[in-house]
Each structure stands twice: as C-alpha cells, then as structure tokens.
Amino acid sequence: MSEPPVPASPPLAAPASVERQLHPLSWVFESVRNLRGAITAAFFIFFVQQGSVGPRFFFLFLAPFLFFTGVVGPLLRYLTFRYRLEEEELVLRRGVLSRNERRLAYSRVQNIDLVENPFHRAFGLAVVKIETASGGKAEATMHLSPAAVEELRQRIFAHRQSGEAADPATEGAPLPEPSQRKTLLKLDVGEVVRLGLIQNRGMVLVAAAFGLFFQQSFIDWETFGRWISRWAATADVPSVEASPFVLVVGGALLIGVWLVLLALLSIAFALLRFAHFELSRDGEDLRARFGLLTRVAMTVPRRRVQRVWSTQTLLHRLFGRISIRLDTAGGGQDDGATGRHWLAPVGRPEVLSPLILEALPDLDAEPLETWPGSADEHWQPIVRRSWKRLFRRWTVLSGLVLVLPVALTSFYWLLLLLVPLALVYRFVARRTIDSRYYALTEDAILTRSGWLSRTLSIVRFEKIQAVAFRQSPFDRRHGTGSIHIDTAGSSLGSAVSLDFIDETDGVLLAEMLHREAATRTFRWS
Amino acid sequence: MTSDAGTPPPLSPAPLRSPEAPVLGFERLDPRALTLGLLGGAISWLFFAVPITFGVLMVGLFADQSSVGSFTVLGLGIGALLILAVLQIGLQIPRFKRYRYRADESGLEIHRGVLWRSRIFIPRSRIQHTDVNQGPIERQLGLAKLVVHTAGTVRASTTISGLAHAVALDIRASLSEDDAGTDGV
Description:
The complex is a heterodimer of chains A (about 525) and B (about 180).
Chain A: E1 19-20, H1 26-48, H2 55-80, E2 82-85, E3 89-94, E4 100-105, E5 111-116, H3 118-123, E6 126-131, E7 140-144, H4 146-165, E8 181-186, H5 189-199, H6 202-215, H7 221-234, H8 244-274, E9 278-282, E10 285-290, E11 295-301, E12 305-312, H9 314-319, E13 322-328, H10 335-338, E14 342-347, H11 352-359, E15 380-381, H12 387-409, H13 418-434, E16 437-440, E17 444-449, E18 454-460, E19 464-471, H14 473-478, E20 480-487, E21 496-502, H15 503-524
Antiparallel strand pairs in A: 1-2, 2-3, 3-4, 5-6, 5-11, 6-7, 8-9, 9-10, 10-11, 12-13, 12-18, 13-14, 15-16, 16-17, 17-18, 19-20, 20-21
Chain B: H1 32-62, H2 70-90, H3 92-98, E1 100-104, E2 107-112, E3 117-123, E4 127-133, H4 136-141, E5 143-150, E6 157-164, H5 165-176
Antiparallel strand pairs in B: 1-2, 2-3, 4-5, 5-6
Helix pairs in contact in B: 1-2
C-alpha cells in the first residue's frame, strides 16, 4: 500500500523518531530457523525415497532452495526491515519488491512475549513477539538487542500507563509506579518435578519417537534379531524355561522400568520448560518468566485477560495440586511453542483465590472457595435428571458401534458386552451431570464441570463477545437447552458452554448475559 | 441482576416466549427470502441429486444383474433423493417462518432454526464491523446478507440472510451508530 505524504500521527507531538534496524545477527537466527524446517523436510524425503534420491536431486533442487531460504531470504529481510517508535504507535517497514508498512498502535497491544535461548544469550539478543487481538500469528516478531527490547517495552508501557489515567474505569486510582513489582508465585524444583509428573509429557515424546521408529524402516529388524541371538549365544545367557512366573515377573519389571523412564523424561521436559517459574505483577501487568535454557518472559496487561480457567486432573489430585491458566486475545496458534498463558502451571488449591484475584481484581471470590471440592449454595446445578439422557446416548452409540461387527460375524454374545458397559455409563453419567454447576457474581459467570478431571472457568461480563442459547430436538422434549459464551480469547472448543440447563433459566440467563455484556462497555465509554 | 454480592441472583421463572407468537420489536425476513431459500436449497439438492442419479443409472445398466438387485439400488437412490429434498428444500419453509431478529439498543438478537433452534445474542458494543453482501440471485431479488463481526473466536461472525437490501443497510446503520469508546476487547 502506498502511504500518503501526510504523517498519520499529529506532526507537532511526534519526536524526530529514528528508524531502527534489527540486531545484525538476526538474519543468522532466522536462517537457522528456516533451515531447521527445510532440513527436517529433506531428511524425510531422503528416508521415504530411500536410494532413489541421488546427489543430482540435491544439487538441482535442494541446494538452491536451501540457499534461498537459508541465506538470501533472511539477509534481504534484515537489510530491508526498519522499525520506528512513534508517539502512539510502532511502525514496521519491510519488503523489497512489494513494500509493506505496518502500524501497531501501542494501545492495541494485547501482550508482549520475550524468548531467549542460550544462543540468543551468547550473542546478546532476544526475540520479541508483540500481539494484538487480531488472532493468528504474532503481529511482530523481531530479533533485538536487550537495550532495544527495553526501549520498546518502556515505550509501550509508558503509553499504556498515561493512557489508563484517561480511562474512566481506573480513574481515581493512583497511577501504578513502574517499579511496584510484586512476586505472586515461584516454583521451586520440587514443584517443577511434580509438574512434570502431572503433565506427563514424556508420553508424547515417546509416541512421536515410536511413530518415527516404526514408519521408517531404517532399523533392519532381521539383523537386529540375529544380533540378539548371537549376543545371547556368546554371553552365555542361561536359557530359562519360559515359565509363567518368569513371564509375569519379567513383564512387570519391564513395565516398571518403562514407567520410570517415562516419568524421568517428563520431569526433564518440565524442568527444561518451567524451571525458575516466577509470576509477578507490575502495576497493571502480569508477568511470568520461566525456562531453563530457553527463557520466556510474557507480559499480559490484566485488563486484557479474557478468561481464567483452572483444571484438576486425576494426576493433579494425586499430588494435591491444581493448575490455572488464562486466555488472552492475542496469538493463540503458537502458544504451544512458548507455553505461555500460565497463571500457575502447578500450585496448591490455596493459591487459587489469591492468584485469580490478581488477574481479575475485585472479582467476588466466594464461589471459588469450594473449588476443587464439592459445590456449595453459591453454585447452581443444571437439570439433574439429564444423566439419563447422557446414559442413553452413550449406550445407544455403543450399541450402534457393536451392531455391525455382530451382524457380520454373528457372534451374538458380543452384545452381552453392553451390560457391563451400561452399568459403567450409568455410574459415570450420573457423576458427570452432578459435577456441572454455574455461578453468577456481580460481574462474572463461573462454570465448573468434570468428575475425574475437573475444570473451572471464569468469564467477566465485559469480556463476553456473544451469547447463544441452543436447543436440539431432544433438548426441546426434555425442556432443556445449552448456553454458549464466546470470548475473544477462546481457542476453538474452549469457549464456555453450559448444557442441560433448564430452558426457562437458560433463556433468562442468556438474555441477562447479553444485557450485562451490552451495558458493561457503555459504562466504559 | 441484583447487586448483593455472593448470593446467586434470582432467576424468576417467566413464561417462555413462543417463537410463533408475534413478539414486540421482532422482525421477520423479507417474503422474497423464502424464494431465495427454496432456490438455494434446490441448487444444493442438485449437487447431490446428479451424482446419485448417475450412480443409480450406472449400476442399473452395467452391474451384474444377479449380484446386485437393481430394484434395491433404485429404491435406495429414490429414497435418498426424497430425504435430501425434504431436508434441503422442504425445511426452507419452516425455517423462513420461524426466523426472527431484533436490533435494538442492546444489540442484535436472532431466533432461528427448525430442528436445532438457537437464540443468538450479540451485544452492540462488541460489534467490530458489519458487511452487507449480495450474491447474483440476491441481486435479482433485491435481497442482501448482513454479516456482523465480533472479536470472538467460535462465533466471530453471524449472518442474517434474506433481508431486503434497504433493510440490511438500515440495520447496519442502526447497529454502528455511536460506538465511541473502547475497542470491545
């Protein structure tokens, strides 16, 4: 897009803003990042097409491709990239053939993330990600020196604090001092080890490794077998009769070793990612820093928090812990990489209320006191008899799944499987329905659900984007319906929903949420 | 809702509004919307009907008569066509009759659906921008679609299809007036 000659910002207020470049080494890091993908791709092509890919392919296709993605592209980007800190906005310019200028208003910045791996530290730079509410990828990802990062942060925060004074919602409150930093939560090594055991990420890594292992036949199983037998012969292993006792003990031992290995892997993973976790509040900003080698620092202004949610899985319960997360409107797609959005990756249930009150100040925390225990009178149940519908739904579905194999094989006794299944379903359906509640405070709606693995969600009325009340044909017959609340931060499928609610209550609740959401912003304007 | 903190607000049972009953302030779609719905349904029905008819003909002409009962195939084909016709074309009539919307000072409210019914509420202050679109058939009929975008994720946009073009523009204008203030996020 071509830019009109008149500057968009008021010409008088704008200082002589200097155009800045990225860190000189940024292109090297970008090159490595690009090549990492290309090399993995090349690796796969090599193994899938074993043998048929010769050096000719490499020189004809791969080498030029690697050269362009690895050297030319990043260099050009570095050479043409400029940024400028204006009074009200950050201006990014880039491009060779098609030039692009992006203006990011400081007031629209949702959160800032900082990522530093050991290589970044060695060369004195860091990656900054700036996100606005537009979703998807970060609006700006830049490699900068620590001094430049600090300058950028100060610009954005300084603006935010002066901007907040004019905001009627916070008027009257004294301006927060930038140095007023309050540590809210620190995880010691023991907690991170527990976190590793709870998250159990080792399983994911092992599954990935297995997939690679079995898909590609770069292990010759026949040779492997011959090695084993040869080793057994030379090592003079006493040939044990495969008695049931030996089989059972051996199997148990193998499973035990396997579980220990998994646990160790999970702990190592958690230590790498969450070591030195520290959550603090600096004025209106929540900050979290964590990571052993790659350090991540995230900053979320707390009025940008869209939803706070807490989970307690079976493993959490085993260790007497919960975890608390928050949704922001920024990004969403790449949080897996930086693992941000944690209020507390792991913590005792007692930390819940204080931490949530830090993220959602002035929330009426009374309903929180019973979480994760059993609900009290602050919580409204859904239609309890709906467990029968859940039970029927599961049983009918299982029956349908079984009908085809039974019809094909004529093993009619397979249908007997439905009896124990139905008993389990009856038990689980009842507890599932009994665990669902919602609570309303003066300015927020809370929901909780789950029997073995529990979830609590909190959404402020002012963060509700849309409300829907839906009824399926079954809902209409039973006089129930479901409420769906959409926020700017919900990743797909995580928006707050409440099903099996009584239809009269549901319609009234949806209308009430709509009214409250509509008036909230009016008060702010 | 009441302001005493802690206690859950009373949800006094009130009679459910029946979507059939004329409710004050609720509007219906333009009558031409039914034509649009029937046409759209017929077109999407053809997308299924043509391959199904073709498949049935192929089986009837070329399949080994002894292995596949061609009457069974014919029956299944016709049954599928009829069911699809009811779902895609027939349902357009009750869908049109049930559709209600209201744009007032608090925002947009839509009641729609035949088998699966929903009431959608979009607070006015959350509307980021609105589109008015016209497809070729809609242009012929003088109709338009109103698309309302919010900063939400699962329901980031909501469409009302089958409004008279002028009405769509009116609603758009009424929804976007005086939204000075915050960014709705």
